[in-house]
Amino acid sequence: MSTVLVTGGTGNTGRPLCALLRTRGARVRAASRHPDDAEAVRFDWHDPATHGAALDGVDAVYLVPPLLNLDPMTLVGPFLDTARRLGVRKVVLLGSLAVLPNAPGVAEMYDAVRRAPEWVVLRPSGFMQNFTGPHPLAARIRERGEIRTASGGGRLGWIDAEDIASVAAVALLDPGIAGEHVLTGPESLGYRDAASTIAKITGRTIRVVDITVEELARTYVDAGMPADYAEALAGMHADIRAGSEDRVTTAVRDITGREPRSFEEFVRSHDTATAAFVKPSRAVT
Ligand SMILES: NC(=O)c1ccc[n+]([C@@H]2O[C@H](COP(=O)([O-])OP(=O)(O)OC[C@H]3O[C@@H](n4cnc5c(N)ncnc54)[C@H](OP(=O)(O)O)[C@@H]3O)[C@@H](O)[C@H]2O)c1
Q1: Is the pTM value of this prediction over 0.90?
Q2: What domains are there in the chain, each with its CATH number?
Q3: Cα of 15 to ligand 1 centre, how many Å?
């Protein structure tokens, strides 16, 4: 039986991944800064003292890099060294289809993962979860019924994070899965298409406003993102406008044996009386 460390074990992909791995009989260590059950382990990227204990006795690692960080190797490099020393065989990295501008450290991290005895790099397109939950895009939809974008009519192959988790589960447990995989949903959609789908299902009109890359970066900073990361993330929208993410792959079906969820199915599943897409009428305490 494999023992798997899932970093980001409480996150968009990590939480469903832990559940899937357990149903397949793996021993799972869900990493969190605030472990809340016996199968969770305390892990903080910024506290290297937590890394060795989390990795000890582990066969495979699902690697969600430190968030909002343009230079992840300062933290991920020593982590991978420790993993290798402790005999971890396989590393599955949650990377991205998008290439952040001015972030050579991210490419270095991909190279370091490729030096693991066995490795898989997952490169998903934009997450459908950006439209719900805490993402600044979702917050603006809920609060103002608005999407601000610098990507014009550019399209992305939006993917449900649960489909990424399904791929990761196979990648972690099946020795036959290796290499790099671009993961997308079943169709490529621009923000206006996404807004129409939300409106069709929830009845809520979402305005799409074109802004510049600089204005988008300021929106991210206002939402609490570090300035350097906000700039890089907003800069990606210029690439999306030029078509960098306008693609659809069959990787989810090829690896899991089932079709990825469409954006429409995703919105329907979150539309319990439109709760995910409207501002709460009173504060939740
Ligand atoms: N969103 C997209 O469209 C998109 C597209 C392509 C790729 N990606 C990539 O996907 C990755 C995950 O993004 P996400 O937004 O879905 O995040 P997420 O996985 O939901 O992130 C939250 C997780 O990170 C953990 N975490 C936060 N700070 C930590 C720290 N200091 N040490 C250890 N763990 C920490 C949290 O654990 P606790 O709070 O429990 O400690 C939680 O499990 C990112 O690398 C992103 O670049 C995202």
Answers
A1: yes
A2: 3-127+159-185+246-260 (3.40.50.720)
A3: 11
